[in-house]
Design a protein that fits this description.
The chain is of the alpha/beta class. It has two domains: about 140 residues, 2-Layer Sandwich (ornithine cyclodeaminase, domain 1), CATH 3.30.1780.10; about 180 residues, NAD(P)-binding Rossmann-like Domain (Rossmann fold, 3-Layer(aba) Sandwich), CATH 3.40.50. Strands 1, 2, 3, 4, 5, 6, 7 and 15 form an eight-stranded mixed sheet that branches. The mean pLDDT is about 95. Bound molecules: nicotinamide-adenine-dinucleotide (NAD). Nicotinamide-adenine-dinucleotide binds next to helix 4 and helix 5.
């Protein structure tokens, strides 16, 4: 027996069941569509996004745990907690990014849903790159380059394949064992993948139409690609720079490009926008998506989407997951909060 004040809990097995039930392509298409709509409707007046903050440490290992809160007026408050521990895959056989999302009822403060957001983070990061690519890249078919072949690379390729025909993928990673499994991990996308030596990063900007950089490059160790004249019309989704001092792109490429941040204030602190003056930064992703016809001519320019992670993406992803789970009866409802039968007596039996 469940009550409306139970919390919907969507763990790993539930998320996997949603993916199985809906289908990988259908789920990502839905997420891209919802994020597109949210970008079009987005207004700072109706959606509050609090600055991402958290704890950053180098003991017991280098990493961080951060919170990403947002509230759309009239909707729930959504808070994602995300950990980034780049040593995880090699040292612990765990993903670098592990996340959980929570949804709070603004009518009464009740925790409505608690869900894994590890897969959701990869999906929404892919969806954001898909929208940027749709707006700013040449029409295609495209040659896609991917630098850094970990978890995010899988959904970058999957998402780009949903908005552009891809005739060739050139993929590389500095870790040979990660590179060796990439083609198999993305077989389901149905596009030909050439995994090449990591030295090809030196010239990759000259050889592809769309480039996704999604590396776990160390602070102050970038850029991860060479400083060469980019292919005309190149569009870059720069995903890995999301921390002060963490950079993937050469400054010269940014200086000559039309740069679109997901959130300007965050990108200036943590993204590729650390490298350019504020006056050189273009409009945010939501604006580009909303005014796509106006920016169509940019498809022939060199463009960069500076993706640091926007809490609204997490809100959209969690709401979609909850909706799909509820439609299919997936997940468990648990009375987590002690809601006493007498609101004035915290010791009274829980309802
Ligand atoms: N923008 C966003 O919203 C967002 C969301 C999630 C993750 N991220 C960032 O994306 C990056 C990738 O995340 P992930 O989950 O795929 O990590 P991951 O650990 O699964 O994969 C990262 C890969 O990058 C490779 N790499 C490191 N340095 C490299 C270099 N110089 N050249 C080529 N390859 C290199 C590593 O060998 C590894 O295989 C991280 O920096 C993470 O912080 C950003």
């Amino acid at each position: 027996m469940t009550t409306p004040l139970d919390t919907l809990v969507l763990g790993a097995a539930d998320v996997a069941e949603v993916v199985r039930t809906v289908g990988r392509n259908e789920l990502l298409d839905l997420l891209i569509e919802r994020l597109r709509t949210r970008c079009v409707e987005h207004s700072a007046g109706t959606t509050e996004v609090r600055a991402r903050d958290g704890f950053r440490y180098d003991k017991p290992d280098l990493g961080l745990v951060e919170w990403m809160p947002t509230h759309e007026a009239g909707g729930p408050v959504v808070v994602k907690m995300v950990g980034y521990h780049p040593g995880n895959p090699v040292q612990r056989d765990l993903p670098s990014v592990i996340a959980t999302s929570s949804m709070w009822d603004t009518d009464n403060g009740h925790l409505m849903a608690l869900a894994d957001a590890t897969l959701l983070t990869a999906l929404r990061t892919g969806a954001a790159s898909a929208l940027a690519t749709e707006a700013l890249a040449i029409d295609g078919p495209i040659t896609l380059g991917i630098v850094g072949l970990g978890a995010q690379a899988v959904t970058q390729l999957h998402a780009i394949s949903r908005v552009r025909p891809i005739d060739r993928v050139i993929a590389l990673d500095t870790a040979a064992d990660v590179a060796a499994t990439f083609a198999e991990r993305v077989t389901f996308c149905g596009v030909p993948v050439e995994v090449v030596d990591s030295s090809a990063a030196d010239s990759i900007a000259a050889e592809v139409d769309v480039l996704c950089t999604c590396t776990s490059v160390d602070i102050d160790a970038g850029p991860v690609i060479g400083d060469v004249a980019p292919r005309p019309g190149l569009h870059v989704n720069a995903v890995g720079a999301d921390f002060p001092g963490k950079l993937e792109l050469p400054g010269a490429l940014l200086a000559d490009a039309f740069v679109v941040p997901d959130i300007t204030d965050q990108c200036v602190l943590e993204g590729e926008c650390q490298q350019i003056p504020r006056t050189s930064i273009g409009p945010e992703l939501a604006d580009i998506v909303r005014n796509q016809p106006e920016h169509r001519s940019r498809r022939n320019d060199v463009t960069v989407f500076d993706s640091t992670g926007w809490a609204v993406e997490d809100d959209v992803a969690l709401r979609l997951l909850v909706e799909l789970a509820e439609t299919s009866g997936i997940g468990r409802r648990i009375p987590i909060e002690y809601l006493s039968t007498d609101p004035y007596d915290p010791y009274a039996p829980p309802r």
